[in-house]
Amino acid sequence: MRHKILVHAEQIDGELQPIALELLGAGRMLADKLGADLEAVLLGHNISHLAQTLIHYSADCVYVADHPELAQYRTLPYRRAWVDLLNHLPQPPHTILFGSTTSGRDLAPRLAAYLETGLTADCTSLDIGPFEYSNSKDQSKSGTFHDCLYAIRPSFGESLRARILGPWKNPQMATVRPGVMQAVQPDYSRTGRVIPLAVNLQESDRLVQIQEIVRNVTSQVQLSKAEVIVAGGYGLGAPDGFQLLRDLANCFANSAVGASRKAVDAGWISYAHQVGQTGKTVRPKVYIACGISGAIQHRVGMDKSGTIIAINKDSSAPIFKFAHYGIVGDLYQVIPELIRQMRSSLRQAA
Amino acid sequence: MDRLLSRPLNCYVLIKQVPDQSSKAGVNPDGTIDRAKAKRMLNPFDRYALQAALQTKQYGAVVTAITMGPPPAIEVLYEAIAHGVDRAILLTDRRLAASDTLATAYALYKTLRWASQGRSLDLVFCGLQTTDGDTAQVGPQLAERLGIPQITYCESFTLQGNTITAKRVIEGGVQILQTQIPALLTITNSAQRLAYKTLRGAQRVQQLQRDEQARSQVIHTVSLDDIGADPERCGLKGSPTIVAATEKIGEIGGNCQVFQGKAVGVMVQQLLQEVPLAKLQEAK
Fold it and tell me: How close is the nearest chain B Cα to the Cα of A190, in Å?
C-alpha cells in the first residue's frame, strides 16, 4: 500500500494561511522521494471551496471536515476531527506535518501524545533518508531503517542544527516554521480527490468555549508584510527606546516595529512584536536590528530578510556576523541621525 | 477575583532547570553543552508560570512545584519556595536520561498523579516552552495524558467558581477562552512578571536547607519506582525520537560591511550610500 504524507491545511476565517501551501511544498518533495501520496486535511466551516486550491498546490487528495463547531480553531474539536480521520485510515500515515503556529504548536503535541508517536518541533528543513542506529543501552531500537523522516531544526541554546529521527513508529510527526518552506507553483489544471469527513464531537470536546477573538490586524499584517522592519532588543536599555524605533519605522511607507524575546521578556513591548523562535518568521526587504545581539533564537526568525542592517554598541555582537551592513555605535545617536539624513534627502528630492 | 470556596483548590506548576545561555561556561568546542559544567538557571518561561500559579493563592490554593532533573535541580524548587509555593517535588532518576518530550510528559503525568493522591488536581501551569528544548510540546502532551483541556499561549486568567477565563495570544491578536477546572495552562513571556521573593519564603528556604527533617516534609524527592512509572516508557527507551546528528550552524553572510570608529554622521552617510533606504520612505 502506498504511503501517505498528511499536512494540516491551516485556515483562518476561511482564508488559507501561507503555511498550508508551504507545508504542501515541503510535503511534495517528501512524497516524491517516498513514492507516497500527499494529502491535506482541511478543517473549518464553509471552507470546502479551499480544497481545490490545495489540489492546485500539489495535494493529491483533500480531507474536508466542514462543520460549524470547527469554524474557529479550538484544540479539542480539531483533535477529534484528526483522531477520527486517523482511526479510519487503513494504516498510519508515514508523516504528518503541522505549521509551527499558535494552533499547530497547540494541536500537534496533543495528537502525538494520543498516538504515542514522535514529534519534532519547529523544523526548518525536512528530508527522507536511511538511518542506521545502534545503542548498547537500548538494543530494541537498533537496526537499519530506510525512508525515514529527517526532521531538522536549530538546537538553539547550543547553536547547532539537530537532525531528529523517529523511524520506529508511524506517523513520524513534525511542526514546521512558517516562512521557511517554499510552496510549489500552482497548477490550475491539476485534479484530485476531495473526501468529506463526518464530524462527531463528544461532550468532552466542547469543554472550552471561545468568548471573543480580537485580531489586531494592523500590527500583525504589518510585521509579516512590511517592507522594512525596525526591531529592538535588550540593548535599547529601556522601554522608551521603542518610541525612537517607531519614529524610524514611521519614515518608511510600509514598515513595522519588531522585537527580540529579551525585549518582550523585559515587558518593554507586547508579544505581538516578537520575531524569532517563539514569535514570527519575517523576510522584509530591509531589517534594521537595533541593540539586538543576534542570538540564534532571533536569527532564525529574520535571517532571510533582503538586507540586514545592525546597529549595536558591541562590535563583537554575533549580529555583525550575519548582517549585511553594520554600524558600531550608540543607537540613541545613530537612529536620530539616520532619521535626519533620510528626511533631508527626501526634501532634496522633492 | 471571587472564587466560591466549595473545596480547597490544588494547583501545580511544572518548572525546569536549564543551562544559562548567557554564560559561556560548559560550552564545548563543538557547540554542545556539558550540562554538568554549565551555569544553571530556572527556565525563563517558567518564571511566568510560577507567577500565574502563585496568583491562585488568592483563591486559597495550595501550590505544588514539580521539577524533573538531576539532583541539582532542587535549586529551582528552592527558588519556587522562596517565591511562595507551598510544597515541591523533585523527580530524579538516572533512567530518565535522554527523555524526549513524549517520555517527559509521561514521567510528569505519573508525578502529577502521585502528587495529587488524596487531593484534587485543579490547575496545572507550565511555561510556554523551555529555552533549552524550545519545543512547547510537553504541556499539551501532558494535558492529553491527563485527559483535561489545555490553554496554551496563556497571557492572563481569572477564576470564578470553577470557571477559568483566559486570554490566549494568537497570530495578530488574542482569544478569550473559558473552561472549567481541571485544566492545564501554558504561560507566555508576555504574562505578568514574577514578583520578588517574599521574606517569609526566603526564610523558609534557609530553614529547609539547614533542617533535613523539615525539608523532607516540604520537598519530596521521588524516583520512577516511587511514582509507579514504567521505566520502559521513560528515558531513551520511552522516547520515540532521538537526536541522530548535530552540526554547528555555519556563519551565513560573514561579510558584513561594518562602519565603526567614525563620527555618527559619517557612518550613517556611508550606510545610506550603500543601502538606498531613502527610496523606501513615505513622502510626507
Answer: 31
Q: Which of A186, A206, A226 is a domain's end point?
A: A206
Q: What does the block give as the cell for B163?
A: 470557571
A135 near B CB under 8 A: yes
Tell me the chain B residues in contact with residue A286 when contact means C-beta distances shorter than 8 Å: 275, 277, 280
Give whole-number Cα distances, A240 to A243, A262, A267, B53, in Å: 6, 15, 11, 30
- pLDDT of B31-80, one tens digit each? 667 777 888 999 999 999 999 999 999 999 999 999 999 999 999 999 99
pLDDT digits (tens, 9 = 90+) for A97-148: 999 999 999 999 999 999 999 999 999 899 999 999 988 888 888 999 999 9
Q: pTM for the full model? A: 0.85
Domain's final residue, options A173, A206, A239: A206
Identify whether residues A180 and A251 lie together within a single domain: no
d(CA B267, CA B259): 6
Name the residue in chain B with its Cα closest to that of A170: B240
B189, B236, B260: residue with CB nearest A271: B189
Query: A–B: how many Cβ contacts below 8 A?
Result: 300
Q: Do B141 and A303 touch (CB under 8 A)?
A: no
Residue A212 domain-assigned (yes or no):
no
Q: Is A56 a domain residue?
A: yes
Domain total in chain A: 2
Cβ contacts (< 8 Å) between A109 and chain B: which residues? 101, 135-141, 144
The verdict on A28 and A141 lying in the same domain is yes
- Identify whether residues A300 and A323 lie together within a single domain: yes
**ipTM of the modeled complex:** 0.89
Asked if B170 and A215 come within 8 Å (Cβ–Cβ), the reply is yes
On whether the CB atoms of residues A187 and A58 are closer than 8 A, the answer is: yes
- To probe the interface with B, which of A132, A169, A278, A299 has the most B CB atoms within 10 Å? A278
Q: Which of A112, A120, A346 sits opposite B281 (nearest CB)?
A: A346
Q: At what angle do helices B44-55 and B74-83 cross, to 10 degrees?
A: 40
First-residue to last-residue Cα distance in chain A: 68
Domain that holds residue A245: 218-349
pLDDT band at B1 (very low <50, low <70, confident <90, very high): very low
Render pLDDT for A300-343 as a digit per residue (tens, 0 to 9): 889 889 999 999 999 888 899 889 999 999 999 999 999 999 98
Whether residue A166 sits in one domain with residue A56: yes
* CATH number of the domain to which A290 belongs: 3.40.50.1220
Nearest CA in chain B to A338: B268
Query: Which residues of chain B are within 8 Å of residue A110 when distances are taken between CB atoms?
Result: 140-141, 143-144, 150
